[in-house]
Structure formats: C-alpha cells, structure tokens
Amino acid sequence: MLPYLNLQDAEAGLGRELSFAEKIWFNYSANKHDFVLHSHNIIFLCFFYSLVPLPYMLVELSRSKKIMKYKVQPKVQRSFWDMFKCYKDVMKSFLIVVGPLQLLSYPTINLIGIRTGLPLPSLWELLLQLGVYFLVEDYVGYWVHRWLHTKWGYENIHHVHHEYRAPIGFSAPYAHWSEILILGFPAFLGPALIPGHIITYWLWFILRQMEAIDTHSGYEFPWTKYFPFYAGAKFHDYHHYVGRRSQSNFSSVFTYCDYLYGTDKGYRCYMVLANKVLLNSVGD
Ligand SMILES: [Zn+2]
Ligand SMILES: [Zn+2]
Q1: How far does the centroid of ligand 2 lie from the alpha carbon of residue 253, in Å?
Q2: How far is the CA of 232 from the centre of ligand 1 (A)?
Q3: Which residues, including other chains, have CB under 8 Å from residue 116's CB and lie 6 or more apart?
Q4: In this structure, which ligand is nearest to the CA of 239?
Q5: What is the pTM of this model?
Q6: Ligand having the closest approach to the CA of 248
Q7: pLDDT by residue for the chain (284 residues), tens digit each?
Q8: Would you say 169 and 216 are in contact if contact means Cβ atoms under 8 Å apart?
Q9: Separation of 255 CA from ligand 1 center, angstroms?
Q10: Cα(216) to centroid of ligand 2, in Å?
Q11: β partners of residue 197
Q12: What is the Å distance from ligand 1's center to 236 Cα?
C-alpha cells in the first residue's frame, strides 16, 4: 500500500514528476495491501505455466516435419491426454504446495525488505538484480540437484521428476512435493541477498519458470545459441534421458558449473559420438 493520498502527493513526496510506468503502478497498487501484491505470484505462476508450454504442445501434436528436426528425442511422441495429465498433476501441486508456501512466505518477504512503493527500479537495477538472481539460483541449484542424485535423495524425492525420460514443457515443475519446497530455497536466495522491488521479484519467478519450461520442452530451437552459456533443452534432456544413473548436466540454466566441476564429460563424449554418427549417415 503506497503512503500517498494521490498522484500529486506522490510527486511532491518524490520531488519530481512520475514516469508513465510509475503512474500506472500508482493507480494499480495504491489501495492494495502488500500481502495482496505478494499473492499475485500464485496467479502469475498458474497463468504462465498454463500459457508458455502451449506452443510446444501444439508443435508436438502437429507432428510437422519442419519442426520435428528440432525435437531432441524424435522417437518419443506425446498424445494430448499424456500432456493434459501432466498439466493436471502439476496444477494440483501448485494449489496444495506452492500456493500455501507463497502465502506463508509473506512475513519473510517483508523481513528481507522487498519494496512495493515508489520509485520503481531503473532498467539497469532490474536487469542487474535479475542477472544476480539467475547466477545465485543456478549455482546453489546445481549443488542441491547433485544432492538429489545421491541414493537417498533420488529414491525418496527426485525419482518423481525423472519419471519423464523425454521431458515436455508441462513437466518442468513435475516433482515430489518436498523437491518443490527444497528448490524454492535457491530460487528465493537471490532476492533475499539483494532485495529489490516486487515487480523485479514477480519478473524473476516468471522468467525462471519460462526458462524451466523451455529447458524441459524437448525442442532445441536455433535461438538457443544466441544466449552464451545457456544450457537449453538438449543439455537438460540428456540428464533426463540417462535418468537414475545420471551424474551429468545438473545445472538448470547455465552450463558453466557442469564444466567447472567436470560433470558434463559424459554429455560431451555423447555429443561427439552423436555428431560422428550424423556425419557418417550424411556421407552414406
Ligand atoms: Zn535430476
Ligand atoms: Zn528436469
């Protein structure tokens, strides 16, 4: 809730004219309690999870040969009902686990100092914070994922996420309820270390979710190569394909941790062999 009576009051408080975006934010948030703004995350989570995997689903159902060349495991074809079942299971876990977790985390959000007022963050502040959040989550998530691949972690928790040997966009958050809670920690760590505006906080969770959906989509489109160190679908697909025995490709966003700690060696050997087979088949 903003501590200003109206736009003029806000401008007097800041000592300058509000930008267009700030006026919109003022009109939207002035009379909303911070708890209500914080709870928006649940709506964004359900909305983007329903929307972003849809193009991948349509591509999968179309079986278009032009697009099939980008599919990482072309022998695996999913039906509408396969994908819809996954969607239903994940939505259930959102309502039972993620929603209550978001609501219960409100006091922590207040404590770490995520602000909801004016001024809005500058573009540089927003980009810098998002960059840090991605790096922090990727690094800590790498080690948490490695722990999930210990015998105990895999058998008791992580095996659920690995039910999909050929992942689909909808399966990105498909996991045991305790894994959802555990992976919430690295996601929350960045905003806790460098708290910003709630808009940055919303954007962080939306972008991270979109990235996870792309990584699990089963399609590696050419635009991936324009993002340096971006893991992409092929990288994470290999992790799912190898499954239980996988001690490779633990990172979810970037490739540098697996490179630094030598956990991408199996994948790199596999890619060399796969490229050789491809070259030989073209030469035949
Ligand atoms: Zn795994
Ligand atoms: Zn996965």
Answers
A1: 11
A2: 15
A3: 1, 2, 29, 34, 37, 197, 198
A4: 1
A5: 0.91
A6: 1
A7: 667 777 877 777 778 888 899 999 998 998 889 999 999 999 999 999 999 999 999 999 998 888 888 999 988 999 999 999 999 999 999 999 888 888 888 888 888 989 998 899 999 999 999 999 999 999 999 999 999 999 999 999 999 999 999 999 999 999 999 999 999 999 999 999 999 999 999 999 999 999 999 999 999 988 887 888 898 899 999 999 987 777 899 998 999 999 999 999 989 988 888 877 766 765 55
A8: yes
A9: 15
A10: 6
A11: 115
A12: 9
- Residue 81 in tokens: 């009902």
Specify the amino acid at residue 205. Answer: F
